[in-house]
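Example record used in the benchmark description.
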Amino acid sequence: MKNTKTMVIAGLLCAVGIVIPMFSPIKVVLEPASFTLASHVAVFIAMFISPAVAVCVALGTTLGFFIGGFPIVVVMRALTHVIFAYFGAVYIQKHSDIIFSVKKAIPFSLAIGILHALCEVVVVMPFYLNGNMNGYALDTIFLLVGVGSAIHSMVDFAISQIIWAPVSKTVSLAHSH
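Model output (structure tokens):
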């Protein structure tokens, strides 16, 4: 991170990313999945700033889940956010018009949602299959964690775009688009 302002914003985004899952009234838990509206917004906004900020915020929120005493599977799911955050931020740096274009954002959001979901499915499988590779267990993981995470990711990306539009006009960052 190149400047103090960017570092402070990354810290604030980490705090927001930790607080939302802890206190949000809009939570759905369907083991092995859990969905908290806007829980990825801080990571997506960090992606709009830079790959370094995106990785720092993803790691910071993961640490927050760990310190907060969340189950290890939740902490590991949060850790996978480093992957989609980094690759998404790198892509956004090369195609910054995605942030403000709904038409261009939808395919990008879908691709990031699929990457997000695949990473979470891989992490969740060992916790819930316990050597039992039956169809029901696999279907549950792929539908709830896979499809559910992809949809959740896309909704949170849209929320992030809505929030970022006015914020980006008032906050000047060396890496912002």
